[in-house]
Amino acid sequence: MKKIFLIIYILIGVTLPFMSAHAMQTYIGVQIDIASTISSCEEVGCTSDRNWCLPGDISSSVDGTQLTVMGGENCEIVNGGAGELNCSALSTVSGSGTTNPQTVGKNSPLCADSSDIIWSGLIDLEASTKYVLKLSTSSYCPGIVIGTTVKYCMVSGEENQNCIDTCAKYGLLPRYFLSLCIDNWLSDCAGIEALKRSDCTECNPSETHNYYDSSGRCYHKEVGGMTDCNAMGIGTFRVCDCSFNETPNSFYFYFTTPENL
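and the corresponding structure tokens:
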């Protein structure tokens, strides 16, 4: 199974008071402009170039997307953008969001069709200096990763879609047995809030499946098990477990600070 991301990012700097005449303290933010995937994974039904996102994570900083700002006198990107040499980490943050500095919590996936930004921690940058950004993922999940020993990739789709269509939006198949979908239990609504990118107006237990409605009410399944893959209701958005590739990967990009800071 192989997938390759092609990512174009937008670099955002928020300058704080100068530390010296040639340096500044700042946060670095990355927003996904384009993300696509080339895959060969027929065993789980993957297709290519489907609305791809970098994973979020609500349980820890391990399974979400991680941003590292790297530097060093001889720091460089090697192997066609697949690795680095002689670089040291200046700042590392996991997750996604729009705050400075980034806090680990309800971290949404980083998608090309959203305004989500992943921010670095506060770092000192020198003028006219080349740095390296490293984006690391623990898997190719276009949603949020939950679980410990057994991990699940949860995504949401359009209104009134079943899990077959919801997973297909990302070129995936739902986790299923015969005609039934695996529906992972959620202890609260944090995962649903991460996928809908807003707080739930209500958080209620559900005996059927994980979903939220057009009014922002959320329903989380308290007991894991099988559910109807085709189930959907008027005004609801299903949250589905999809098949995914758990292979980690990293992507590297250069950026250079301006001459006058």
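(Above: one complete record from the training split.) Residues 190-196 form the longest helix (7 residues).
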